[in-house]
Amino acid sequence: MKFQLRASLVAVAFTIAAPAVMADTIKIAYIDPLSGPFAPVGQNILDSFKYVADKANAEKWAGDNKFEIDGFDNKGSPQESLNVLKSVIDKGYRYITQGNGSGVGLALMDAVNKYNERNPGKEIVYLNHSAVDPDMTNSKCSFWHFRFDSNSDMKMEALTTYMAADKNIKKVYIIGQNYSFGHQVSRAAKEYLARKRPDIKIVGDDLHPIAQVKDFSPYIAKIKASGADTVITGNWGADLALLIKAAKDADLKANFYTYYASTTGVPTAMGAAGLDHVKYVAYWNTNNETFSGKDLVEGFKAKYKEDYYAMSTYSILAAMSKAVKTAKSIDPVKVAFALEGSNFKSLNGDDTMRKVDHQIQQPLYIATWVKTNGKDVKFDQENTGFGWKTNQKIDAFVASQPSSCQMKRPG
Prior knowledge:
Largest sheet: 7 strands, mixed
Shape: globular
CATH architecture of the largest domain: 3-Layer(aba) Sandwich
Helix content: 40-55%
Strand order of the largest sheet: 7-6-8-9-10-14-15
Radius of gyration: 22 Å
Number of domains: 2
CATH topology of the largest domain: Rossmann fold
Structural class: alpha/beta
């Protein structure tokens, strides 16, 4: 009788404890480059996720639930990403996040769709922090995918609206990485400039192998020879840092309009040579109109000795926290239904996860590389003494784009 009673008590205790353990931790697998040429960017974003997760846990954003972010190196490869995906699924992760490379993102989307179709009750959700190919929320949209960065068409809409007002722009050279995102940037730049400023001439359009070019001087020579006064590039990581360095070495005076000039390594490569010549479009600027996120920026720098710029890490955990509370569950299907159409507050203001295609709708910033002044440019980058001055904050509705998404929802 004593044995039976003891066994019953153990069984009851296990029954009570087990659900609490499962419900207490929201494990997110971060699948991005943590080795190779794009490792510095990948590591920065992983650190950003961990820092925001610590803040969210301490402040109970998701109630009693806790976030845990674990990094997995995909080496920037779509195939390696699929291997990692299988591994993290086997380990019990129900949420993944990725963003460094739309080629990888498209491969993961397809794999997640197929896995979820074959494994009802064990679904996983893909939280996209930075992969911006428009197809991911258009022709290839998925219920299981949520994008927390503005897609490349949205950013180009904002960028070219700003450029159209500058009558000094006469000749534009486009250069990018030869994969899906690079192609989308090239297409949109030509299409949107033709609509807004048909007088501008496109004097060059180059695509180069991603993460393979070590010396961009031949490309810079072509840009100089073209007479371009403006360069548009979607390059990121080492490919942008090396491109900017080659432009500096060749004393190229053209203005650069970029997507990712604030990412790891690029500010150091620019230094004083980029002063007033380099701009970027992004969903946030550390030197924003109210310095929203100031404490986070300072705390992250103190802990990691690097700059916080990947604000989508904040948006993802803020949106997830609200969805978990709404769903009263950490189950991926219930959380996904709570995420779509949700409104949540991030560092750039009030954002919406559009239900029709799971594309975030948020403001965008245009900023220029200038000297810090302790006033509207308080924060520098990479200890250079230079930072980003906000030129314009563009409301979400200005950059918003229609969607061709025909989403299939479970049930």
